[in-house]
Amino acid sequence: MTHETQIAQQLKVRPTQVAAVVALLDDGNTLPFIARYRKEVTGSLDEEQIRHIEAEIARLRALDDRRAAVIASVAEQDRLTPDLQAQFEAAETLHALEDLYAPYRPKRRTRASIARERGLGPLADLILAQPASSATAEALARPFLSDAAPTPDEALAGARDIVAETISDHAAVRGRLRERAMQVGVLTSRLIDGAADDKASDDKDTYRLYHDFALEAPRLRPHQVLAINRGESEKVLRVALDVPEAEWLLAIRGHFRPDRRSPLAGQMQQAMDDAARRLLLPAVERDVRRALTETAERHAIDVFARNLRALLTQPPMLGRVVLGIDPGFRTGCKAAVIDPTGKVLDTATIYPHPPQNKAEDARRILSDLIARHKVALIAIGNGTASRETEQLVAGLTRERDGLHYVIVNEAGASVYSAGSLARAELPDLDVTMRGAVSIGRRLLDPLAELVKIDAKSIGVGLYQHDVDQKALAGSLEGVVESVVNQVGVEVNTASPALLGHVAGIGPKLAGAIVAHRDAHGPFPGRTALRQVPGLGPKAFEQSAGFLRIRDGDNPLDAGAIHPESYGVAERVLARAGLAADAPVEQKQARLDRLCAEAPLEALAVELGAGVPTLSDILDQLVRPGRDPREDLPPPLLRSDVLSADDLRPGMLLNGTVRNVVDFGAFIDIGVKHDGLLHRSRLPRGVGLQDLHVGNVIEVVIVDVDQARGRIGLGWPKATNTGGGATTDGSMKAGR
């Protein structure tokens, strides 16, 4: 079976579609370009399917490379037989291949290799053969005595070491036991004696659930595996995998069995026990735990990627003047006013909180900034002193109609502030003030600002520091690339950080584009990009469709129609009697009439285009460069503050999803601590996959633990649209 056929079966698509994607990838095409502009070639496979093909073909090719290395290694040992080669060729996973290779893999000196050096291999073969004989085991061992093994007991012990290693290296035995261990093995964790005394009290709470823990491998949830791994690495927990004795006996006896008629039956039984306890079970435990960890890490990475995508796709608050506040106690709160383009208009530092307690001065300064610059929105970072600052801001919003505030996730703002990009963008501001600018810009245009920060620093994941960092970085980069290209980038205003994520560009070319823009002024059209040094035909082909130039020489440059399809777009406009810059309503009416006159398939043939491409062109002609984020609900705008003391069970509140993890979602309901909507409290038909970072949802207060700062949330049974009583008798809090 070819790789393309194998992948096609996984995705339930045609092998020709997979082959087309592989060929496009091998030719240097980017994933966003293939998904958007090669639909006719791929049969309209979506981005997720193409990403799967990309990952799978890489995995299968890596397996082929390893297979070739294994076969070459065994051939060099003159031990490669046609049957063995066929087994190597048939291995479908790396585990299966390595199990087959285990007996032939060059090893460090082991007890078995030392025994072979002593000439005890033939005696081991006798034990494996289990011959019937009237002689004793000691008698059968005497011909193999030597200076290195002077007694029968020593000779038999060495031979048993060889047999034990043979059993452990047997591919079928190891594969069977690994499979059963994954099905019935029990992962246990115990508190290491004295370990908790050396840890801080909060660490005791962190691992309390795992001080005396046991659960079957198939029932383990990813967050449990990662928590146990972390506890083990911090030397708080002792972890083991328990496999029932019956399982390893069955696995071994399927291929190695003592014969009671043989005087070497006891030697075989001892070797089996030794193989299981010393070699096989530890190896299988490592394999199972590695598999559990890999599965848990993939899940954690997927959760992080899903949360990051939701965060990046939050709708921008365009056309507004924003006041960004980076809260703090001792060093004060940094405030920065930014205009609708992100330009800094004004800055100030206020000290409303302890130890200075200059609340009135702070109120006066903020009021002046708001009035002078006509501020419409205030963005407050959610870090230290956030809720105290919210109290101050809420007082201002109550005094001014139309003024609202939003609590913004500030994770990674300090990383950006101290970086070279922030120094280049804001050279006249100190590090702390740059953080306030970043917080304000995150509200103005989340995507444009968040791409400046290493995605791993944004903090919307689970156990992000415990997973494979290379795999995490690759997954998150894929999300950023996907969202940036889905939204599109205005080339005449974009930062190098944003341009660097456009398909086919990258950081170096992004810098060249900005340098050319600074030296020669705005690009009048997409074709002018060809003048940028280093931007060759391939880079232009891959990137052009994702770059926007509004108010340029060619109206088509403002949308997502690729320049290679301008001819088709112009024929569509001519056929409909339209100009490229005609009003939207006129375009919609005439294009609807055009499509009503003939089936899309016939129109595609007439205009010389594929149906998917023509469909995309028609959509873009009506709404050129439409930002998909505009279709999403805006962030929750607040005008008043709520205290945790105000919370009562049964109270209904609107909240913003801040993070979604395995066991639930953390919801910002406007008090100091986020509430937890546990997965067990979701109604039937609603799963965690339905909740996304940035969603504004209604929740009900279930319980409040003031001492521990924990708020339990639930899903409301039914509510009306306004305040007052709900159908279940609870009260909805006004905000």
Annotate the secondary structure layout.
Blueprint: H1 3-11, H2 15-26, H3 31-37, H4 39-42, H5 47-76, H6 82-90, H7 94-101, H8 111-117, H9 121-129, H10 137-141, H11 152-169, H12 171-184, E1 186-191, H13 201-207, E2 212-216, H14 222-233, E3 237-242, H15 245-253, H16 265-312, E4 322-326, E5 333-338, E6 344-350, H17 359-373, E7 377-381, H18 386-399, E8 404-408, H19 413-417, H20 420-425, H21 431-444, H22 446-450, H23 469-487, E9 489-490, H24 496-499, H25 506-520, H26 537-543, E10 547-548, H27 566-576, H28 584-597, H29 600-607, H30 611-622, E11 652-661, E12 664-668, E13 675-678, E14 696-705, E15 710-714, E16 724-725, E17 731-732
Parallel strand pairs: 4-7, 7-8, 9-10, 13-15
Antiparallel strand pairs: 1-2, 1-3, 4-5, 5-6, 11-12, 11-14, 12-13, 14-15, 16-17
Helix pairs in contact: 1-2, 1-5, 2-5, 7-12, 8-11, 9-11, 11-16, 12-15, 12-16, 14-16, 16-23, 27-28
Characterization of the model:
With 735 residues, the chain is an alpha+beta fold. Among the domains are: 3-104, Arc Repressor Mutant, subunit A (Orthogonal Bundle), CATH 1.10.10.650; 322-480, Nucleotidyltransferase, domain 5; 514-631, DNA polymerase, domain 1 (Orthogonal Bundle); 644-732, OB fold (Dihydrolipoamide Acetyltransferase, E2P). The protein is 49% helix and 12% strand. It has a 5-stranded mixed sheet, with helices on both faces. A 5-stranded mixed beta barrel has the order 11-12-13-15-14. Helix 12 (171-184) crosses helix 16. The radius of gyration is 33 Å and the shape is globular.
